[in-house]
Design a protein that fits this description.
Layout: E1 19-21, E2 24-26, H1 28-32, E3 35-38, H2 58-67, E4 72-74, E5 80-82, E6 85-89, E7 96-101, H3 115-125, H4 144-148, E8 159-162, E9 167-171, H5 179-182, E10 215-217, E11 228-233, E12 246-250, H6 255-263, E13 269-270, H7 277-284, E14 289-300, H8 313-322, H9 325-333, H10 363-375, E15 384-389, H11 394-406, E16 412-417, H12 423-428, E17 434-440, H13 447-454, H14 470-480, H15 485-502, E18 506-515, E19 517-518, E20 522-524, E21 539-540
Length: about 550
């Protein structure tokens, strides 16, 4: 999620003087501030959504969190702080949480931000009719899973708004000590009453997607390659005013083209094409580089007859052992992204090294496992499809893996999907075979990796592999239902081993990070450990 300053932010009411500029109302400060052109965020294609109720990608969520403020957020040092909430408390062992909201905050249309604004937002986001792929984040709340799946009505007893007292009280399914962090996810954003019945198409009209964040949409967006999204300061914002008067996000379908636009002076930042990290960071500097809580991985379609299911474990383990993670780290990222040894990244509470099947190449083990799979009556398969979203350089990573597998005798081929924002939806529906994916923490807890990516209840959501294991689910469920953090950590670690070592549902490659090249005029480029760029705090000379 976004961070509005490098430390905890104190929110004060901004006395903004409205100036009409091109039909858009901006603050007096914003009218004199510099503009910014971003060619990095959407360099690999258009976002799936920027609507906080629907976006399931980091790039979409990054923009959504510039438009909407939630109850809490995480700063650049990884600390939790109140955004709309001034304080929160639980008096029954984390089974019920009460948030007190700050007064006098407004949406960009002037409507007050109230506790009921969150109820309005959650009713929309978690309604079965919205079919949000990130609605599972709400399942911590008593009755919300039933509401989201159409098996029950709105759980009014579990989400109670008192606008006069400025409090929002939430009842959980189980004691949830991490709820103040979890509720910082963008899907829990408030919305004004004007958006209560807004459809999934609302973002296509910039005048109707109304938030309470530091920015607002200047106009209807053009969400395709060659298009752009433009945001300007929210004149009614109750926090620190953005340091930029306008941010224009250019949408490209190819990382190389986006970098070339930056290098030619058309943008203030740009992406780094695969294999050029050392060259370009040496040339442009490292101010846009930060290690984050994230992991790249390739998952196996659990329903695929060749790579899926318990019967094909030895083929999956052969593939996992064959992959040369050091080669990927060195050749593609020049060491900026380090080889990963598990799904959870270093720095995340509960992280333990070596949780994956292997962190280094084991060619002999790969050959042995492949022979065991063939000995079970299987034949050399048709080339394994390495499915990925095109235009972002993943073809180069996939090509290394294909060469690695050739050493074992396993045929494989590239399986690119267009950079049109639909890749992950297609993977969710089971179209991929060996699926390229990556994950940045939405909130810094182990559950945020294990439940959304691998739990049965996350199938059709971020469980792209459609992996389902009774054993794994039971371990995660037991971790979720306890207030004993030591026991929960133990159960999460056992679950990680179950999925990665025992079932080999996915195989990790490298730990993620943000690496952006910046023009010399950009003097500050804050990035949170969750991978969010704080566009409202970018400093440009």
């Amino acid at each position: 999620m976004k961070v509005l300053s490098l430390g905890k932010r104190s929110v004060a009411v901004l006395a903004a003087v409205g100036l009409a500029v091109g039909g858009t109302i901006v603050s007096a400060h914003a009218a004199t501030a510099p503009t910014y052109i971003d060619c990095q965020l959407f360099s690999a294609g258009e976002p799936d959504f920027i609507d906080p109720a629907l976006t399931s990608t980091l790039v979409g969520a990054n923009l959504a969190t510039m438009l909407f403020d939630g109850l809490t957020d995480t700063d650049a040092s990884g600390n939790l702080y109140g955004e709309v909430a001034s304080k929160w408390v639980t008096k029954d062992g984390a089974k019920t949480w009460a948030f007190t909201l700050k007064k006098n905050l407004k949406f960009s249309n002037g409507e007050a931000v109230l506790p009921s604004s969150f109820v309005t937002g959650w009713k929309r986001a978690f309604a079965a009719s919205m079919a949000s792929e990130v609605a599972y984040h709400s399942y911590f709340i008593a009755g919300m899973e039933e509401y989201n799946t159409g098996k029950g009505g709105w759980p009014s007893a579990s989400v109670v708004a008192d606008d006069s007292a400025m409090t929002l009280t939430i009842k959980m399914v189980n004691p949830t000590a991490d709820w103040p962090s979890i509720v910082g996810h963008s899907v829990f954003s408030p919305i004004p009453t004007t958006m209560a019945s807004a459809s999934s198409k609302v973002e296509e009209d910039g005048t109707k997607l109304v938030g309470n964040g530091p920015f607002m949409l200047e106009k209807a967006i053009t969400k395709r390659a060659g298009g752009e999204v433009v945001i300007v300061p929210n004149p009614n914002y109750g926090g620190k005013a953005p340091l930029l008067s306008r941010v224009t996000f250019k949408i490209s379908s190819d990382v190389n083209a986006a970098y070339n636009a930056f290098a030619s002076g058309q943008c203030d930042n740009g992406p780094i094409p695969a294999g050029r990290y050392t060259e370009l960071l040496t040339k442009w500097g490292t101010k846009g580089v930060k290690t984050t809580l994230g992991t790249d991985y390739w998952g196996f379609n659990w329903e695929d007859p060749t790579v899926g299911g318990t019967q094909n474990k030895y083929l999956r383990s052969a593939i996992s052992k064959a992959i040369d993670r050091t080669q990927i780290s060195t050749v593609i990222y020049q060491g900026v992204r380090k080889p990963a040894s598990g799904l959870l990244p270093p720095g995340l509470p509960g992280y333990k090294a070596g949780q994956g099947l292997t962190s280094s190449r084991d060619l002999n083990g790969a050959i042995s496992d492949y022979k065991r799979w063939l000995a079970l009556g299987n034949k050399t398969p048709a080339p394994i499809r390495l499915s990925y979203n095109d235009g972002a350089g993943w073809d180069k990573v996939a090509s290394i893996i294909i060469a690695n597998l050739k050493d074992v005798g396993i045929p494989a081929k590239l399986d690119p999907y267009p950079a049109d924002g639909t890749y992950f939806s297609k993977m969710r529906s089971g179209k991929g075979q060996m699926i390229r994916a990556g994950w940045f923490a939405d909130y810094p807890i182990a559950d945020n990796f294990l439940f959304p990516l691998l739990h049965t209840k996350s199938i059709d959501g971020d469980n792209l592999e459609r992996y389902s294991s009774v054993t794994f689910d039971a371990l995660v469920d037991s971790a979720r239902s306890t207030t004993n953090k030591s026991f929960a950590q133990s159960q999460y670690r056992r679950a990680e081993v179950q999925a990665l070592r025992k079932d080999v549902a996915l195989t990790q490659t490298v730990n993620r990070g943000i690496a952006t090249v910046l023009a010399a005029s950009t003097t500050s480029f804050p990035i949170t450990p969750l991978g969010m760029i704080a566009f409202d705090q970018i400093v440009k000379n």
